[in-house]
Amino acid sequence: MMLKYASILAGSLLLAALPLSADVKITATNTGQGLGAMINGETVTWVKGPRMRIDRSGMPEGRTTTIMDAAARLMTTINHDKRAAEITDMATIGAQIEKSVAASDVKAQITPNGSSKPILGKSCAGYDLLLTVPMTIGNQPNMAMTVSMTGHVWIAKGAPGTADYEAFWKAAAQGGLFFGNPQQMKVMPAQSKGLTEMYKAMASLGGLAYATDLEMKFQGNEMMAGMMGRMGFTMNSVATAVSTDPIPDTEFTVPAGYKTSNK
Question: With b meaning 16 or more CB within 10 Å and e meaning fewer, what string describes 92-110?
Fold first, then answer.
């Protein structure tokens, strides 16, 4: 579950700073390890108006798609190997998160670090990422810990992008939506709030993220440190192709013949 959370984060960050007008599709390679699993796959992220789609391969759960519709306030998770889709009411989960997580509980920062690197023919400016959120297992005080995600993102300033992405985040903010794995949002709401705050910060950078390096760690009391101290993981994503060709509406629908359920 945590690896899928990081994969969604990496894929979304690769689109979280688009200022110009067009539909956008980014293909990226993903590598990483941790939590007893290895990652070596591809992410394809699409944005059209208030809708975002993230396709993932090379993950432990197989080939999956996540579709987020900020206007309809729905998230659809698709497992292509199982030919099944689950539709989640994000407004309901968002209301629960707002009640259970205070803004002061979440720390999300992105700051320029003065570095740069060439990616896809662009000189990309480096930024440091920091996301810190509390986490409690089973609502037990002695099972409390802090989850921290640190890393770097490289932004291609003025890269071909889309105002559609800005529309997506505007609709998401107006609807009070939160993003992440639906099952995880219910049991770890602070991480979902932190993830959303990070997306909002990324959206103000004035360029397109072409690469991210992320590391997640767990810290807690002596008991939790022993249980979770070795459960961190890393995730690296690098864009290999960017397209601003028009995206058909059909890319944001469940494939015909798939079993669909509502959560």
Answer: ebbeebeeebeeeebebeb
Ordered mean pLDDT values, 10 residues apiece, the chain (263 residues): 50 50 83 74 88 86 88 90 92 65 73 96 93 69 74 85 63 64 61 69 77 83 57 85 92 96 86
pTM of this structure: 0.77
